[in-house]
Amino acid sequence: MLKNKLLHATCAAAVAAAFWAATFSVRADPPPSMYNPHEAGRFGPVLVTDLVLSPDGRHLAAAYFMLATNRPGTNWDAWVAEWDLTTGKRTIVPNATRPLAVSPDGQWLAMGHYERAKKTGFDSIPPHAFALWRMGEVRPVRTLNGEDDQKTPQDSPAEILACTFSADGTEIYAIRDDGCMMSWETANDSPGKKGDALSLLYLKHVKLGPKANLLATKSGGVYLLASIRNYPADRRVCGVEANWHKSRQWSSGSSRFIEACSDHYFFRYPSNYSNIPVALSLPSELEPSDFMPARKSCVPLPTSRTAFSPIAKPDVIAYRRPDAALAVVRQIRGEQLSQFPAEAVHAFMPDGKKLIVSDLRSVLRFWDFENGCIARTLRLDDKPPDTFLVAAIQSPSGFGRPEINRRELDGAVRRAASAGAAIVVLPETAVTGYMSLDLKQTWQVGNRPVSEGLAGVDPRDAAETVPGPSTNFFGDVARQCGIYLSVPLLETDRKTGKYYNTVVLIGPDGNTLIHYRKLNPWPWAERGWAEEGNLGRPVVDTPFGRLGVLICFDIHKQAAELAKLKIDTLLYSIAWVEEKDSDWFSNRLPKIAAKHAFNIVAANWSLPPEENHPSWYGYGQSRVVDSAGQVLAKAERVNGLEIIYAELPLPKLENTESIVAD
């Protein structure tokens, strides 16, 4: 029996070993011609970790990292995408990673390079080497080793954190995570030269300028700034650390520190401000006043989310708001120029007129902030590049339960935003409920008559003002997610005592863009409470085109009026009731979109999850229809909550100037 037990244990161990080996084995590099980071089954959350442009603006390289989605954390991925912006050609370099640097002539890229382990194991991210590529090629020309480095990247003692080319392109400078400065000659294979070391323990962010000037952030609010003198001739490093709590300003040698920053566009002021002391650290939260220069205090921005304009516009800065998914462009000395929904800010184009940002899907947008439009889009998949994602949330709403409804809708809106939706639409009066979902109760104000067979419910406890609890709540959601969000509710006007069927469109800064009251209440359900709207047909221009809103029954009379206002997309909130086997959603609604040449994002109510045999029809069938009447996406269910996504084309720009600087 003992022998049988040992045999069974041995077999089980062998099976387990084979299983874990298959599970955790690291795949070999695929052929470069076959490499596709978005192939089916591999796509996960992706981050843009670095981005560089050639000085002439004709080449762009971006480093991507795909987060692991399995529990051991082994199915991560990393690559660099290069674009020739004149031809649009894209090259994917597998296993490449940050940091990136492009040579002054735009012909060379220096960047990190992973070589995956040949053995199985639990290491999710192996150490990476540092290598030199020709722009547009997928294999490195050579690996850049240091004098004290082993030849195999897996045994490399230190990782490269930041790099740059010299102004003439003949040398590459880098800083390692042990604080050592390194340099290589671009034209030969000699090992790198090692310079002095800085104390970079607990490092968070590092940037390196073209003169090997360095700015780094460390834990505990410490900013470290290093100025390299005669590097690499004597490779001496002069650095200083300052803690926000202990040294708010640094006055000794301030002009040198400002110049060191301005070399790599971290902190640039006009020359007449060159003697202003610099605060080398920041509070945890930034206020607009932090960007106003004073005679005795200037505050730089967080290095990881900030871009400074090139020489063409030396006084313009861009950053991601710490409290919102918004890119803000403003003059250093005060005036805000524009803002745009974005997850991260990367770089200005050399002409200083366009800012490159990315969203949660790592889609790169070239934002023409002077004209308030998107000039170009770069993306990794093969979908049409000049599109944006919209979401229609189909859901049931509890009748007269605004707090519960807000909580449930909050989760759905955030899921849609995390999927990359720029615009999210909710069903009619989704916050407060339109009717009971058995169609037996409706709202009733005072003694106003209701339709036969319906019981009236006083809306006083559920109705809200605008602004009010729901616009404040969803304003925060829209700001945190950086989206345009429709908020449908039952509104009360405290001054007149009247009630309205309302939609508020909130922008990515959390502010109200459209306040619309339903112009054509549906008599059967709304005669007991809803007044005709008195705020007209407001529309708003956004980077995603001109938007308008309508509510359910409105569409029969108001679609033609919105067409006269030349909207690009209708945000349509619905609580539809219809005959069985109606062709409203499948036929008539697409015809309205085609007739008036605008897109429709239609969000309808649905049945509760447990309801299978309703006595009425019209629920479900939410969809997105393009301006040609083609249904791009539609709901698959009629019960519970469902999010419908579709890509819509960006509005065409007339006389758009070339994205590449002449």
Describe this structure in words.
With 662 residues, the protein is an alpha+beta fold. It has four domains: 22-197, 7 Propeller (Methylamine Dehydrogenase, Chain H); 201-288, no CATH class; 301-385, Thrombin, subunit H (Beta Barrel); 395-649, 4-Layer Sandwich (Nitrilase/N-carbamoyl-D-aminoacid amidohydrolase), CATH 3.60.110.10. It has seven helices and 38 strands. The chain has a six-stranded mixed beta sheet. Strand 1 (46-53) and strand 2 (59-66) form a beta hairpin. Helix 3 (402-418) packs parallel to helix 4 (469-481). The longest helix has 23 residues, at 2-24. The chain is elongated, with a radius of gyration of 29 Å. 45% of the residues are buried. Mean pLDDT is 75; it is low at 1-36, 38-42, 118-125, 150-156, 199-204, 217-304 and 654-662.
Cα radius of gyration in angstroms: 29 Å
In the CATH hierarchy, the third-tier topology of the largest domain is known as Nitrilase/N-carbamoyl-D-aminoacid amidohydrolase
What is the CATH class name of the largest domain?
Alpha Beta
CATH superfamily of the largest domain: Carbon-nitrogen hydrolase
Which architecture name of the largest domain does CATH use? 4-Layer Sandwich
The termini sit apart by 84 Å
